[in-house]
Amino acid sequence: MNIGPDTTPGNAPSSGGAARPADETQELFRRLRWEHLREAGLPEAAPPVCPILKLLKGQKALVTGASSGIGRGIAIALAHAGADVAINYASSSTDADAAAEEARRCGSAALVHKADITSEAQVESMFATVIERLGTIDILVNNAGIQDDAPFESMTLDQWNRVLAVNLTGQFLCAREAVREFRRRGIRPGISCAAGKIIFISSVHDLIPWAGHVNYAASKGGLAMLMRSLAQEVAPHRIRANSISPGALRTGINTDAWSTPEAYRELMRLIPCRRIGEPDDIGRATVWLASDDSDYVHGTTLYVDGGMTLYPGFASGG
After folding, report:
1. 56: helix, strand or coil
2. What is the pLDDT of residues 275-289, one digit of tens each?
3. Of the candidates 277, 261, 253, which has an alpha carbon nearest to the alpha carbon of residue 16?
4. Strands 60-63 and 110-114, how do they pair?
5. Nearest one of 122, 123, 72, 128 to 101, comparing CA atoms
6. Which pLDDT value is given to residue 133?
7. What is the pLDDT of residue 6?
8. What region, left, alpha or beta, does residue 6 occupy, with left being phi > 0 and alpha being psi -120 to 50 degrees?
9. For the chain, how big is the Rg over CA atoms in Å?
10. pLDDT tens across 57-97, in order?
11. Are the C-beta atoms of 80 and 106 separated by less than 8 Å?
């Protein structure tokens, strides 16, 4: 199970009634977490609060699907780390502008660019614009992705093609443009010892099967081999390609998955560390993979999932 695997336009919002105010939702979440851990006799499981180090000063990053959720969390983390950021979005300019403003409050430059990543022409135009305005791109975070779920026997060809177009073909198109820029420009001494970094945001469902979501799981499995094959090809050119596969994350589209004691308890059965992930968890992992601290890391998938891929059903009973 993956709640909130992607946070990009195209994912349907929860249908569980009227949205709660953000402060009320946050307080509900904290209470449910505390009650669950108290009942289980476990210590508090809170996300990190330490500041993000300025590991990316002088670098320029493009994050696709960055107007909300995971993508927004990644863009803000990169800005905290010193990178200037370009925020790609597909529908809501209001959300994208708000994300850019938050990035600027971190002391970084930020711009927004609307583009459909399934369109070759729009991807090429987006890269040309971002490179013109920022000077270059050092980091591409391929985050954009969608779900369009159905039982296998009733899934339409349009549903299949739509998910593969965004989650796989769109990632290919963006990665290809990034590689072209990295090879054209080469290494920027004093900025990074790599010519460029590509980070694909995948899902635990590149490994865990997901009934009822065959198109989505297939797209993420394909993305795993796209990343690894690309990493093998471009490593000699000092270009690094890696993936991050998130598990269950708390975003605006999945409140129903944790907003009652019963739902929270059921979700925690799948997460050994006993907390839901936050977009900031993915942002911090992205900063590390984009920095020279991970320069010897090529073709690796980092599972940021609280242990979801550890077969939690086998934690007891033998």
Report:
1. coil
2. 899 999 999 999 999
3. 253
4. unpaired
5. 72
6. 98
7. 43
8. beta
9. 19
10. 999 999 999 999 999 999 999 999 999 999 999 998 999 99
11. yes
**Beta strand 196-201 with 139-142: parallel, antiparallel or unpaired?**
parallel
The answer to whether 296 is a known catalytic residue is no
Strand locations in the chain (E)? 60-63, 84-89, 110-114, 139-142, 196-201, 239-246, 301-304
For β-strands 60-63 and 139-142, DSSP reports them as parallel
> How many other CB atoms are found less than 10 A from the CB of residue 87?
31
Domain over 27-312 is classified CATH 3.10.280.10 = no
Q: Compute the distance between CA of residue 283 and CA of residue 149 in angstroms, rounded to an integer.
A: 27
The type of residue at 44 is E
CB neighbours of 291 closer than 8 A, spacing ≥ 6?
55, 56, 81
The pLDDT of residue 207 is above 70: yes
Res. 257: pLDDT tops 90: no
* Residue at 32: amino acid letter: L
Q: What is residue 253's predicted lDDT score, i.e. its pLDDT?
A: 65
- Using alpha carbons, list the distances in angstroms from residue 271 to 34, 44, 45, 279: 15, 14, 12, 16
Out of 89, 216, 264, 303, the active site residue is 216
Contact indicator for 254, 4 with CB cutoff of 8 Å: yes
Question: Is residue 82 within 8 Å of 54, Cβ to Cβ?
Answer: yes
